[in-house]
Design brief:
The protein has about 300 residues and is an alpha/beta fold. The chain is built from 10 helices and 13 strands. It has 3 domains: about 120 residues; about 60 residues, no CATH class; about 100 residues, 3-Layer(bba) Sandwich (Glucose Oxidase, domain 1). Helix content is about 35%, strand content about 20%.
Length: about 300
């Protein structure tokens, strides 16, 4: 299904949950694509800013991602939406924690109305507003403490935004991009940062990470590097992946435990493991590099350790 058709179904789903067009804003690569910024999007991934107070289930104050509770009507409806459209919404509830300035009202002001093929209107995040926000954070707070991979990523992203803006003759966006690119280049030159290449030893017998949901299980590993591999996941396996997104629900429901490379306390893996009561260790950094399909492991989410048994 094409993105616009999926957005029609998404608008219908959220309307059924009682959300109006002022309660959510469509953002991310697909939203930028609707404005002529043709980034290569994460396949089937829809980023949605949403008013946490308007969701029909309770969301923790520090949760950076929102997901319907297990066995809820909303989860059944969301699963049906994902199966039908092949798109998975990633709900980003606002405000998050103490970041009171990041409100849905602000995102609405930074959005424009977009008319879908079925004539329904949704709000999409305006690229120049998004970049202005990002630039303010980067220029005022901490580019200097970033490592080389993050600076490389920002150089790549802002160069792409700049090229698209030049084609559109969007002078405001061009100016924002130039300021960030100049700052990144200066810091890179001054610090002479080099990418850190971690050598992964073949003799590693255990991996450590952060605990998302406690528990202790043994099982065989199934590594899912991207969403295209989800169909191979079998019931009773240990799900090992760089990070989870809403697309992963079909695998998570079958998993004995979840182990991820990335993630914090409010990430999707942390939230869904608590909802489904599945042992979860996140932020290992190297799980997908060390563990292979069929490895027998013990996931001790009471201590935050994955032990390789065989």
């Amino acid at each position: 299904m094409k993105a616009e058709k999926a957005l029609e179904k998404l608008e219908e789903l959220l309307r059924g949950w009682g959300l109006s067009k002022n309660d959510w804003v469509f953002t991310g690569e697909y939203a930028w694509g609707l404005q002529g910024y043709k980034f290569k999007p994460r396949k089937g991934h829809l980023d949605i800013f949403v008013d946490r107070k308007k969701l029909p289930w309770e969301v923790g104050k520090l949760d950076a991602s929102a997901f319907p509770p297990k066995n809820s009507l909303e989860l059944k409806q969301l699963r049906k939406f994902i199966k039908r459209t092949k798109f998975a919404p990633h709900f980003l509830p606002l405000p998050i924690g103490t970041a009171k300035w990041q409100t849905i009202e602000k995102k609405v002001r930074q959005a424009q109305l977009y008319t879908l093929p079925n004539k329904r209107k949704i709000r999409i995040h305006i690229v120049s507003k998004l970049l202005k926000d990002r630039a303010e954070v980067l220029l005022k707070t901490g580019i200097h403490i970033w490592d080389e991979p993050k600076i490389r990523r920002w150089l790549k992203d802002f160069n792409l935004f700049k090229r698209f803006a030049e084609k559109k003759n969007d002078k405001k966006t061009i100016k924002i991009c130039e300021r960030v690119l100049e700052k990144c280049k200066k810091i890179r030159k001054r610090t002479r940062l080099k990418p850190k290449k971690e050598k992964i030893s073949s003799e590693i017998s255990q991996i450590k990470g952060n605990i998302a949901y406690k528990g202790k299980v043994k099982g065989k590993v199934e590594v899912i590097a991207n969403i295209d591999q989800l169909s191979k996941f079998r019931k009773g396996k240990i799900l090992v992946t760089p990070m989870t997104t809403p697309d992963f629900i079909v695998a998570i429901e079958k998993a004995k435990a979840i182990v991820t490379n990335e993630g914090g306390v409010g990430c999707h893996a942390a939230i869904i493991s608590r909802e489904f009561k599945i042992p979860c260790i996140m932020g290992t950094k190297i799980a997908t590099q060390v563990l292979k399909d069929g490895d027998l492991v013990e996931v001790d989410a009471n201590r935050g350790v994955v032990k390789i048994l065989k």
